[in-house]
Structure formats: C-alpha cells, structure tokens
Amino acid sequence: MTVRMAGLFAGIGGIELGLRDSLGDGLETTLLCEWWEPAKQVLGARFPGAPLHPDVRELSDLPADVDLVAAGFPCTDLSQAGRTAGIRGEQSGLVSHVFAMLRKRVRAGLALPNLLIENVPNMLSLDRGEAMAYLVEELEALGYAWAYRVVDTRATGLPQRRRRVILLASATLDPKTVLFADEAGERPPDALRDDAFGFYWTEGRGGLGWAPDAVPTLKGGSTVGIASPPAIWIPDAAPQAAFVTPSVEDAEMLQGFPRGWTDVDFDLAPARAHGTRWKLVGNAVTTRIAAWVGGRLGEPGEVLCPSVPWTGVRWPTAAAGYDGVREQIAASEYPILEPYQHLLDIVDVAEARSLSPRAIAGFHNRLRRGNLGKHPGFRDAVASADLALNPPTLFAVS
C-alpha cells in the first residue's frame, strides 16, 4: 500500500519521519509546508527532494492525489505555556487554511484525504473546548467521520511525559479502527527506575511537572517565551552534580529523532543556533506516536475500547463522531506499551550540563516559598546542592 501524504505545519518532520518508520517505502511525501526558516532548513536536509512550500496562507491547493494530510498546527494559542488566545489566535487559527483547501477539493469533486491532527490537550478545555468544537464542526461539514485520543508519549517507550491529542478524520474508513484498536493501560510504576527524576526548574512556584524516570514535556519555550530544558535530579550523584539538564541531542532522542537531526548550518552564532535547535525540538511531534498511527492506518483493527453516547459539554480525553452523533470512548492514554527506555539510558550524564550556582539558588529560593517538591529527599538535595555551589562567605573578625 502506498500512502501519498502532505505535511502541513511540518516543523522538523516528526510526523513524516514517524510515518516513514512504520510505512517504509509505502510512504510518498508529495508536499511539506513550513514557514520558519530554521525548520525549513532541517526539512531540506532530512527530506531531500520533497517539495517544500513556505507558507500555508499562500498554499492554494493540496496535491490532487494526496491520501493523507498531516497538520500539527501551532499550539501557541492553545497551550498553557503559550498565549492561550484560543483557536482564533494568530498562530493556532492558521488551521482554517487547511479546511479552506479541503472545501475547495469538495467543490472540485476530488476525494477527501484522511486528515491527521496533533495538538495539546489544553485545547479540550480552553474556552470551554472551543477549539475542539471548531475542528469537529468543520470536519462534519465536510462529511468526515472523526475520532481523537489523548496519548502519552511514554506509551511508545520514550521517557518523556508528553500528552497530546491525536485526531484522525476520514471519509473512507472508521477512524476508531485506527485510534482504538489498541489498548494497553498505563505502565506499572515498578517498571520505572528511581535513579532519575525530571522536573521544571524555571517554574518552581507554579508547578514542577514532576516525572519519575522521565522528563516533563519538552517545550519550545517557557511561560516567558524562553526555550529552557527541564532539569533532572540524580539522587546518587554528588550534590554539585545532582541536578543536570539534558543536551539538545538528548532531547532529539527523547522526541524519537536520531541524535543530530537538527544539527544543520543555520548560519547563526553558536548560542543562537543552540537556542534555535531547542525550540525546534520542543515544538516537534514525537515520531513514535506518528509511527503507531501509521502502522494502524496500514492495518486497521477491531475496536477494543468501549463507548457510550455522549452529549456533554466537557470534551473527554477520547471521543468519536459522525454527522452530529458523538461517542465518549473509554480509552487510556496508553494504546501500546513499547519496551521502556530509561531516562539515564538516553541522557548522557557525562555530557549533561549541571545547573549553575545561580540557577540552583534561584530554584531553591522559589521552592522554599511554595509547597512543591515533596518527593522524599528532593528538597534536602536541592538545599545540599545550593550549599555546595553557593557556600556562605566567611568574614574574619579582627
């Protein structure tokens, strides 16, 4: 089976690479569309020969023979780390151009391609779920059946706690046979090691994003727009080396990419190039999630997850529908449980950068003013690191 796909809002090609991993030579990339120059440079280097369009706003038509359109549209206006302006925001609102192109196909009598959308779970609750309501209304007006499921990246074996809405719409197959043909349930806690814990060190009073044997969600920017990696606590390390940050190459692997995927010539100063790579990786789609979807697109299965009619106002974490009839699906965020890659098997501790004395002091100060970080030994470890890196100044008495 050959799948001809168009990747809109392509970023650094996470969906494309994942689909290629699952479909192999059965995937034909007919179009990639991305506006940000550094991302376009990565796409050009990693997908040579694939047609690359610079702006979805100026893209008038989809390729005539396309089977699948992937649209991981910007989450900037939907995420808690972003502006939360909603689906009508300047960035997230760009998805409207996708529907305009699909309507044009309908008027021309062309077949509707399958549509794969990825975005943040906050879209289910922000503005009372206006974003999901908008997507569903547009899909049903075009004649699509749709289904979505919140999926945790840890299901694929990657040690990153990254939850994303995966939405599939189709005019030719039941999307439930793709998204709900697998159900594994959450990975048991005893499958995780206790030698490393990930957390956000820049948000000490607002939430730590605590993650055993994993990092919290990698982000393209923090709440103040700065791309800062999460930190990792290594309990068995010496105090001055107990808190480190993963390298950008570690982050690439945590997203399912090969090391060095974003290491292209951006013609930028080294510090700016490093920050640019972090933003690219943080905004990417995890490749292994796309690989799971691609595998099921090639081989739909029996729907395993039970459903009940749904007429509520709050969008659940999994649902499906067609022509106004909606179902709530009893599905976990773990459709599969691939062998787990422990955090310290990916992060190269020898190359990881320790948090600076200033960073540790700032985080320790915020931690003391809040009620977070209650994991046994964590607060004491932060205090010990602060003392080791910022020893008190002794003044001689004459």
From TrEMBL:
<dbReference type="GO" id="GO:0009307">
    <property type="term" value="P:DNA restriction-modification system"/>
</dbReference>
<feature type="active site">
    <location>
        <position position="75"/>
    </location>
</feature>
<dbReference type="InterPro" id="IPR001525">
    <property type="entry name" value="C5_MeTfrase"/>
</dbReference>
<protein>
    <recommendedName>
        <fullName>Cytosine-specific methyltransferase</fullName>
        <ecNumber>2.1.1.37</ecNumber>
    </recommendedName>
</protein>
<dbReference type="Pfam" id="PF00145">
    <property type="entry name" value="DNA_methylase"/>
</dbReference>
<keyword id="KW-0808">Transferase</keyword>
<comment type="similarity">
    <text>Belongs to the class I-like SAM-binding methyltransferase superfamily. C5-methyltransferase family.</text>
</comment>
<dbReference type="InterPro" id="IPR029063">
    <property type="entry name" value="SAM-dependent_MTases_sf"/>
</dbReference>
<keyword id="KW-0680">Restriction system</keyword>
<dbReference type="InterPro" id="IPR050390">
    <property type="entry name" value="C5-Methyltransferase"/>
</dbReference>
<dbReference type="GO" id="GO:0003886">
    <property type="term" value="F:DNA (cytosine-5-)-methyltransferase activity"/>
</dbReference>
<dbReference type="GO" id="GO:0032259">
    <property type="term" value="P:methylation"/>
</dbReference>
<dbReference type="InterPro" id="IPR018117">
    <property type="entry name" value="C5_DNA_meth_AS"/>
</dbReference>
<keyword id="KW-0949">S-adenosyl-L-methionine</keyword>
<keyword id="KW-0489">Methyltransferase</keyword>
<dbReference type="GO" id="GO:0044027">
    <property type="term" value="P:negative regulation of gene expression via chromosomal CpG island methylation"/>
</dbReference>
<dbReference type="GO" id="GO:0003677">
    <property type="term" value="F:DNA binding"/>
</dbReference>
